[in-house]
């Protein structure tokens, strides 16, 4: 594993820890926000592969540190310990090495399988609001009567 990136994540984690108890956990949202508020770190997370330069080549899907960040964001625990972070890194490296199936459930409580982008939601009201905000009044006006008529039918 790339030790420079791991040290940078640890620095962010230690920064977020309680000043009174350096062995305490960190709220997941606080840790993720701390990482995202550092533009240089975010850029490096997306560019840097999980493995170090001299490590054996991956047999599975190549993972970057941004995959670790996604897993941390989706972690089932609201309070993360450094051990939780290391477990997510280990799991991502095992996926990269082909030791774990990409669709298996990881320490964050979800799978890393790609394809499904998220839950399906109704976006029509949001779409119309967005169109009206960006100047698409005409498009929103054209779709609004049809939607109102459809909603009125029992």
Notable traits:
single chain, globular, 2 strands, two-stranded antiparallel sheet, 154 residues, 7 helices, mainly alpha
Folded structure, characterized:
- Helices cover 53% and strands 3% of the residues.
- The chain has helices at residues 3-16, 28-36, 39-47, 65-73, 82-96, 124-133, 137-152; strands at residues 26-27, 79-80.
- Helix 1 (3-16) packs across helix 2, helix 4 crosses helix 5 and helix 6 runs antiparallel to helix 7 (137-152).
- The relative contact order is 0.11.
- Residues 114-121 have low confidence and may be disordered.
Structure described in brief:
This protein is mainly α. The protein contains seven helices and two strands, in the order H-E-H-H-H-E-H-H-H.
SS field, number of helical segments: 7
Average pLDDT works out at 76
Question: Ranges with pLDDT <50 over ≥5 residues?
Answer: 114-121
Q: What are the secondary-structure elements, in order, as H or E?
A: HEHHHEHHH
Number of strands: 2
Radius of gyration: 21 Å
Portion in helices: 40-55%
Biggest sheet strand line-up: 1-2
Strand content: under 5%
The major beta sheet can be summarized as: 2 strands, antiparallel
Termini separation comes to 59 Å
Silhouette: globular
Sequence-ordered SSE layout with sheet pairings:
Layout (H helix, E strand, L loop, with lengths): L2 H14 L9 E2 H9 L2 H9 L17 H9 L5 E2 L1 H15 L27 H10 L3 H16 L2
Antiparallel strand pairs: 1-2
Helix pairs in contact: 1-2, 3-4, 4-5, 6-7
């Amino acid at each position: 594993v790339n030790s420079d990136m791991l040290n940078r994540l640890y620095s962010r984690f230690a920064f977020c820890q309680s000043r009174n108890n350096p062995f305490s956990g960190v709220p997941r949202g606080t840790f993720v926000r701390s990482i995202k508020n550092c533009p240089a770190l975010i850029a490096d997370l997306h560019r840097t592969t999980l493995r170090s330069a001299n490590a054996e080549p991956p047999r599975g899907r190549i993972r970057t540190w941004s995959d670790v960040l996604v897993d941390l964001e989706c972690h089932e625990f609201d309070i993360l310990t450094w051990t939780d972070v290391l477990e997510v890194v280990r799991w991502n490296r095992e996926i990269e090495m082909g030791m774990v199936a990409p669709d298996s459930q990881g320490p964050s409580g979800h799978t890393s399988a790609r394809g499904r982008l998220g839950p399906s939601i109704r976006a029509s009201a949001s779409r119309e609001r967005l169109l009206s905000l960006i100047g698409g009044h005409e498009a929103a006006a054209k779709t609004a009567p049809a939607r109102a008529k459809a909603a009125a039918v029992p």
